[in-house]
Amino acid sequence: FISAALPQELIELLEKIVLHNSDFSGNRNLQNLLILTAIKADKKRVMDYINRLNNYDGPEIAKIALGEQYQLYEEAFTIYKKFNLNSDAVDTLLMNLESLDRAGEFAARANEPEVWSKLGKAQLVQNLVSQAIDSYLKAQEAGDYKDVIQAAEREETYEDLVKYLQMARQKTKDQIIDSELVYAFAKCDNLGEMEEFISGTNTANVQAVGDRLFDEGHFKAAKILFQSIPNNAKLASCHVHLGEFSQAVEAARKANNPKTWKEVNFACVAAKEFRCAQIAGMNIIVHPDHLEELILHYEKGGYFEELIQLLDSGIGGERAHVGLYTELGILYAKYKPEKLMDFCKLNASRMNIPKIIRGCERHCLWPEAVFLYTAYDEYDAAANTMILHSPSAWTHDQFVSVMQKVSNSELFYRAISFYLEMYPLLLNGLLTAVANKVDHARVVQQIRKLGHLPLIIPYMKQVQQHNIKEVNDALNDLYVDGEDHESLRQSIEEYDNFDQLALAQRVEKHDLLEMRRIACLLYRKNKRFKQSIELSKIDRLYQDAMETARDSGNQELAESLLKYFVEIQDRDCFASCLYVCYDLIRPDIALELAWRNRFMDQVMPYMIQIVREYTYRVDALDKKIEHKEEEEQKEKSAPNDYVPDFMPMNPMLQGMGQLALMAPPGMMSNPNPLSGGMTNPGGFGTMQPGMPPSMPNMPAAAANPGMAMGTTGGMGMQPQFQTMPGGRPF
Taking the model in full, what pTM does it have? Predict the structure, then answer.
């Protein structure tokens, strides 16, 4: 029939055989054939056949009916239901018919765990979490607990989840189940049961659950969990969020780690619980790494007083460190600058000075910055700061003290300019303090360029002892300008390193006589004796002229000056010049000038001295020769007692030259061997007591005068004349 494409005819035939009472009505194969043929040829008859027939292979026919080709889902469900295959039936309802309602009704009628389990899974897939959990509870099935937990948490059906997990932990021992049960208790705010549960035997990961609850803001539940562990750090955090600051401090004290203390402190500050904040803060500030963050938090809230009070309390502790002193100093600089200087003086050795200095500079606290630079041995920076910010940072004593220790020499000259501009009357004090460190010539040049040399006269007087040309020139110029001839004379006499001729030319025409005298002195020092004498003669400074002539050692200048006095008929000066220039003036010149100009009274003391000089020298030579002869006589008489027949006449006295007046020939026959050929009848040449010896620098004119006086005592000796330098006989 099938091959011949006659399915209807086959169905009618099989109905007559199977459905009507016949011997073959109960035949399994015929019933299977009838249902299968109907499935293929006439689907409307299939349900009737399934209900009327009983002896056929239901599961196999149901599978064929569920096939993609036929999709007879109701027929298949009916078959499974008729044959009490409830699991397959509910699968058909869920997967093929997709009817959860019918599946639920069927599960309620079937009331089998497997059916309930499959229904619960399907409901879970459809996000019917409560119905699914109810189905799982009826099925007492815990195998899908992970999916159930995930779905319940997603839908926040924690009360149902608690029931499920309580059932599940009876079936399966797993940490996840206990942990999720604790979490579900907390989410349901069932804290009593949660506390009771964690106090009993369980495998829950309390720490993880507590962290999870803490992150979600369930601080009460998290607090209970952290207390049970215990985890004091997290417990402190819970107390903080619950506003229990005293308990938070106690928990933080037990935890004793900076992170916890910091959290407690920040929360207390935010809540303005400064007593608790200070307790927590005292345990934070001892850690340098956390100090800046703490300070920033206080400053952000504007709690400057409380912050300073906290750090001030901290520096008295045993664990105070450099960072603590430093940050407190910076806070003083920001908010209480009037206290910073005292703080720095007390704690300079404990601070990070460069950091404090930067804070002082940011807030323009220049006196404090100078003090810190000095304490840090940064004297150059301290000096620069005082110069740049003198209205507030400069004091004379401190500046002078700092300048004595600076290493950059250029700062000295910068400081000089600064003082000239701001404090000129104190400049000498500065220069005196740094006198050993500066280049005096450069200092003078710098101030001369600015035109303020008179300001530093005391300083220049102090350093003039070094005999520096620039200093001497500057002082001498000032003395000239101020007509201070006494100081000028003292300066040029004691210090010679200056342009003497330039100064002499400057003052030789000065209005003051004393200044012109100084010009004479300068010319004399530079061996310009003639020029000096001429200036002295112009100003009638005859004593200076005489002294200049004497110092020159020039016979011509001395005699020229003597002639000048004759020309102006100044008898006193003539006599004085003979005395002052005694060693330079030739006796013949002096006597000639006196005789011709009737100055004999003035020349006589000089001539007496000349005669006395020569006499003394002659006597000295006599004694020397006599002593020498006696020695020679002793030497000759000692070995042979020999006495010579005669003594040869002594040669002319050495150094005396030819006498101007010679004795007559008859007087020279019996020369006195002791007097070197000179007679001394009257004793005129004898050395008188108290007469000085001849001067060692006796000039040739004195040693060999143009006219010498004899020693014959007026016994008829004829004088002989020598020719004067001018060719005139005398």
Answer: 0.61
